[in-house]
Amino acid sequence: MDSNKLRKKVDRKLRKHLHIINKETGVVCSEIPTLNLGICNAGQINGLTEEIIVEHFSEYGPLERIVLIPGKSCAFMRYKDIPSAVKAFDATNTQLKIAQDGKPIYLAYVETVPETSSEKIYDRLPPGLQIIENFITEEEEATLLSLCHFETSGGMKHRQVKHYGYEFRYDINNVDKNKPLPEKIPTECGFLWDRLSFNFRPDQLTINHYKPGQGIPSHVDTHSAFEDPILSLSLNAPVVMEFKKNETICVLLPRRSLAIISGESRYAWSHGIVPRKYDFYYTEDGCSSFKRDTRISFTFRKVLKGECNCSYKLNCDSQNKITIESALATKLENQHVHDVYEDIAGHFSETRHKPWPNVLNFVEKLRVGSVLVDVGCGNGKYFGHNSQIIELGTDRSLKLNELCKERGFEVFNGNCLSLPLKDNTADAVISIAVIHHLRRSPDIRVGQATGEE
Ligand SMILES: [Zn+2]
């Protein structure tokens, strides 16, 4: 194909994409260069992430904003100046292959980038969270790092963990308060408490070793397990931690900083680390990013004697018995999943189904503490979008069960024609693309959220 024909073909495709984008987002394209670039043929639904955009576009100049719209196959970015946008446009348009199936992207200058409600927040911290930078010196960091020896070789899939004082049990999300460990918090950590402006003597330490690409699912530290506050010291490398409660706040935890997670941020916000290799966060100057390195975190906590008496009752396992449902989820998992794992062999390659936006919307709106059951959950694509609910999935495919399990989701093997669930187990049920197989039980309310308030 000669170059003229090729250009016409590209123009035709571009016009088609721009027409769709304009209809879906209202964004108008510009004939002359602007600060704003639109990627017309790739977006969140094709697996494009802020991280990928930063990786490929920050080399042309400082990015001020990145906008990905859930469920859409377009994305937008704004540079600080027009020359940077022009440089990026000329270097990547129809050449950079980050669209679906390794196809090249089509770019256009646009008048504005769309506003989204999922905009990441950077100008404030969750209430009660405090980050103290340079809390320890490099020498002190080296001393603390010498306390823990982790296997550094081999491809560890999950982060490595070591406990002192009490073992944190991930199966019950609590400590066994009657079984303290012989190994207490190393005395070398003692200097840290003198630097705090309040009196705090922790008796439990968890050391986490995160390699690039590893993370921790979003969670609220069990109220009845620990007192307030929780301290997290970041060693060897920074990371971005996401705090969530109706909104997401991305918080940079610099190397050698101390995070004091207290009050509302401890009791009512969940926190987690997205498993990825590049980190991305907003600052006053736009967005910033870095490649992750091995991070060691020291999390210091004080085991709570008795029950929690906080004022965040909805999130409180001591005061709100709805969380008993999570114990049920664990029990079901043990009953129905454990045995079948023995039979699973071979490698399973993930199919790339994307969630339907309307279903996602439903799941995201479920109230705090709701128990959601996904019948025919597949690879668990509707899980992990709402940290405030309890999720339980079932699918008849063992391979898909395993995949869910690997992704950290509670799932059991089952046939949707005879669900092994007790009455009134769920507040909400979804069954996507399998609903015609499901015999409805009058006690399970399909498609309706009924969380307690
Ligand atoms: Zn509580």
Top keywords for this entry?
6-stranded antiparallel sheet, binds zinc ion, Nucleotide-bd_a/b_plait_sf, Alpha-Beta Plaits, AlkB_tRNA_MeTrf/Diox, single chain, nucleus, 453 residues, Jelly Rolls, 21% helix, 10 helices, metal ion binding, multifunctional enzyme, 4-stranded antiparallel sheet
Could you provide a short overview of the structure?
The chain is α+β, with helices and mostly antiparallel strands. Helices cover 21% and strands 24% of the residues.
What does it look like?
The chain is α+β, with helices and mostly antiparallel strands and 453 residues long. Helix 10 links the parallel strand 20 (390-395) and strand 21. The strands form 6 sheets. It has a 6-stranded antiparallel β-sheet. 21% of the residues lie in helices and 24% in strands. Bound molecules: zinc ion. Zinc ion (ZN) is lined by residues 223, 267, 308, 310, 312, 316, 318.
